[in-house]
Specification:
Shape: rod-shaped
Organism: Menura novaehollandiae (superb lyrebird)
Membrane topology: Single-pass membrane protein
Oligomer: single chain
Radius of gyration: 34 Å
Subcellular location: Endoplasmic reticulum membrane; Mitochondrion membrane
Protein name: Caspase recruitment domain-containing protein 19
Strand content: under 5%
Helix content: over 70%
Order of helices and strands: HHHHHHHHHHH
Number of helices: 11
Number of strands: 0
Pfam family, one: CARD
Length: 179
C-alpha cells in the first residue's frame, strides 16, 4: 500500500473527535517544514499553523495537501506522526491492517514457538538425566578405576541432585568394590 492510500484511509480517523491536539499538529507541521527534505514551505507551514482557522480545517487541509504532493510527503507525515504522537500512530486503522497476518502466510514466530514450546526447564531436565546416565555408566564400567573420584563427586551432590538419588548412587558405588 502506498503512503498516500494509507493517508486517505486514515484521514477520517485522524480528523474525527479531536484525536490530535493543536500542539501536536504544530509540532508535525514544524517538523515537515524544518527537517530535510523540506516537505512544507514556510508559507504552507504558516497556513497550516494559522490559529484563526479551526483545528479540523487545518488538519484536513494538511492531509489533502500532502496527498497531492505525493508518496514521499505522506511518508514523512507518518514519520512525524510517529515521533510526536506514537500512541495515535500505533492506533491508526492502516497500521492495524498491516499488523494482521495474511492467512496464507506462515508465521515463523508462532512456528518457532510451537517447536520450542517445552521451554528451558524441559531442556535442563533432559540434559541432567543424560549427564547422570553418562556419569553412572562411566562409574560402572569395569575397565575404569575411578570409583574413589566418583564417590568424592557424589559426596557434593546434595547441591546438584536430591538426597535420595545420592544415597542410592553411594550404596551402589559401595557395593561395586565388594563384588
Amino acid at each position: 500500500q502506498s503512503y498516500c492510500h494509507r493517508l486517505q484511509h486514515d484521514m477520517y480517523f485522524l480528523t474525527s473527535t479531536s484525536r490530535l491536539n493543536e500542539q501536536v499538529i504544530d509540532k508535525i507541521v514544524l517538523q515537515l517544514n524544518r527537517v530535510y527534505p523540506q516537505i512544507l514551505t514556510n508559507e504552507e507551514a504558516e497556513k497550516f499553523r494559522n490559529p484563526k482557522a479551526s483545528l479540523h480545517t487545518r488538519l484536513s487541509g494538511l492531509l489533502k495537501h500532502l496527498q497531492k504532493k505525493g508518496d514521499r510527503h505522506c511518508q514523512e507525515f507518518y514519520r512525524a506522526l510517529q515521533i510526536n504522537a506514537e500512541q495515535l500512530f500505533n492506533d491508526l486503522p492502516s497500521r492495524k491492517i498491516l499488523k494482521t497476518p495474511d492467512p496464507t502466510e506462515i508465521d515463523t514466530d508462532k512456528e518457532q514457538y510451537m517447536l520450542n514450546d517445552r521451554g528451558p526447564v524441559f531442556f535442563l531436565a533432559c540434559f541432567s538425566v543424560a549427564a547422570g546416565l553418562a556419569l553412572f555408566w562411566y562409574c560402572c564400567n569395569s575397565e575404569t578405576k575411578v570409583i574413589g573420584r566418583a564417590r568424592r563427586i557424589l559426596g557434593f551432590s546434595p547441591i546438584i541432585i536430591g538426597r535420595h538419588v545420592r544415597n542410592i548412587c553411594m550404596l551402589y558405588l559401595e557395593d561395586i568394590p565388594r563384588n
